[in-house]
Amino acid sequence: MQEEVVIRTEGLSKVFEQGKKHEVTALDKVSLEIRRGEVFGLLGPNGAGKTTLIRILVGLLTPTEGRAEVLDRDVTEDIDYIRERVALLPQEAGIYDRLTARENLVFYGGLYGIPEDVLNQRADNLLDIVGLREKEDYQVKGFSGGMKRKVLVARSLIIEPEIIFMDEPTTGVDTIGARVVRNLLKKLSAERDQTIILTSHDLTEVAELCHRVGILYQGQLVAIGKPSELEEKYRAANLEEVFTGLVTGEGVYDS
Ligand SMILES: Nc1ncnc2c1ncn2[C@@H]1O[C@H](COP(=O)(O)OP(=O)(O)OP(=O)(O)O)[C@@H](O)[C@H]1O
Ligand SMILES: [Mg+2]
Questions:
Q1: Is-contact 45 23, C-beta < 8 A?
Q2: Which of 115, 125, 213, 221 is most exposed, with minimal Cβ within 10 Å?
């Protein structure tokens, strides 16, 4: 793994107004670095700030305070440069129901100015990998939730991005499909040096897949490191114990 830092945040905060009376601090002074080729897992309970962090890094939200850099460019200054080089698998999907599986991939890639013959070749490969080749000419409208998720995984990869943000890539995908997605992500990071930032509520998945993880709790980054380092630091048997300990305050002692 190279040491080049491709994502850097410093004191990054995001405060949302919720109606006139309420404010929510979705991110609270988060500082972290992610290096090229890493598979980095973002963990945290519902509402911890995972999606907010990803949305800031792809320019869908502006930070309230602090800095965020992707590929050495500030997200508030050079978002066009960043967007050409990163892909996002959103938590809530913007899939085109009336297009077929293949059309979804090729249409999306076309928005990046990639020629159609190149896109069709990549689509062949990606649709094979996610196991949707036989359904490629079906409208996505009739697909199950997990099948749609697979189309979106393939769609996010068709631009061959340097950095891939995947917000819950395997949620709703069956056991075998989830394994396919995990193996694909491992391969992309190992063979192509693509950097992957993913969120998941499946801690076994995260432990298997991620070189390092960051645990968010109430907007704060409460732990960051290799799963094995965190297990050692918190004297836990596995990542799930680290996580529950930090989030509930039970049974974990900071050494
Ligand atoms: N657009 C918004 N307007 C107001 N509040 C928001 C908005 N987006 C997120 N929030 C709030 O910010 C906090 C963090 O939300 P976020 O979606 O980042 O959590 P998450 O870690 O992705 O959770 P989950 O595991 O449920 O996906 C929550 O309290 C949420 O209600
Ligand atoms: Mg989320």
A1: no
A2: 115
Cβ(198)–Cβ(188) below 8 Å: no
A 10 A CB-CB count for 76 gives: 13
5-90+163-248: CATH number: 3.40.50.300
The DSSP secondary structure of 149-195, one letter per residue, reads HHHHHHHHHTT--SEEEEESTTTT--HHHHHHHHHHHHHHHHHH--E
Given phi > 0 = left and psi -120 to 50 = alpha, else beta, which region is 174? beta
Q: Tell me the per-residue pLDDT of 95-133, one tens digit each, with 9 for 90 and over.
A: 899 999 999 999 999 999 999 999 999 999 999 988 899
Give residues (CB < 6 A) around ligand 1.
16, 18, 24, 26, 44, 46-52, 91
Ligand 1 atom 29, closest CA: 47
The model carries a pTM of: 0.91
CA–CA gap between residue 23 and residue 16 (Å, rounded): 6
47 CA → ligand 2 middle, Å: 7
Quote the Cα angle for 140-146-148, to 5°: 25
Name the residue ranges covered by the structural domains of the chain: 5-90+163-248
Distance 71 CA to ligand 1 centre (A): 25
Say if CB 195 and CB 211 are below 8 A apart: no
Q: Are 199 and 167 in contact (CB under 8 A)?
A: yes
- Residue ranges of the chain with per-residue pLDDT less than 70: 1-2, 93, 251-255
Residue spans of beta strands (DSSP E) within the chain: 5-18, 22-35, 39-43, 65-70, 73-74, 86-89, 163-167, 195-199, 212-217, 220-225
